[in-house]
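Entry for the shared binder. Reason: the reviewer on the internal report wants the predicted structure included alongside the sequence.
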Amino acid sequence: MDLKGKLVAVTGAGRGIGRVMAHAFAARGADVALLDLDEPALQDGLAQCTRAGVQARVYRCNVARENEVVQTLATIVEDFGRLDVMINNAGILKDALLIKAENGKILNKMSLEQWQTVIDVNLTGVFLCGREAAHHMVQLGNGGVIINVSSISRAGNKGQSNYSAAKAGVAAMTVCWAKELARYGIRAAAIAPGFTETEILQAMKPEVLQKALQPVPLQRLGKPEEIAHGAIFIAENDFFTGRTLELDGGLRF
């Protein structure tokens, strides 16, 4: 796919990997729709994209709410007249152990709220945005690409029952969509980042972060620009579909 003049929609585009992805596609000449709940952050991301000389607009959208996703994607298509790449990047963390006990006494459990909130955003949100993107891509008749952001945690990570389950589901849905949508000229692929320099990791204590990096062969965090480069590769390579691109510095859980 030649990205110049195409329309790329990015969820979670207010900050972190999502914002960098939006800017990377704008630098390639693609118009960009930035989706997030953080309106001030969206405006900052918008300024970065418009400086690249492309059209860009922002949309406040809760990806876990069906009516908002349906309306937002319809508005994007109405505003730009097309939809070529949908990047499902929005996600949240609510880490907790399944149970925490000491001397046979249960001290804490992962709450249903912690479970459901992460599933709603990280899995259901991807489903809703992917479904609506496919809907419009089929109607427009130009094909397209759906890129889902999974995680190395999809293999299962301590303290992340909710997040790991959601990210494993994202990877599995990607395969389903690649098989189902190929007949319409639509590809589907995923990216599974490892530890990456984002606001979430910046909040970690240095000693905790250093311990997390010990098993990473490259001994460093990934950069958001490196994850964005993976999304560019997927979009531009017309033979890449149904696979998860692992960008984790060689880390294996």
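Summary line for the report: The mean pLDDT is 95.
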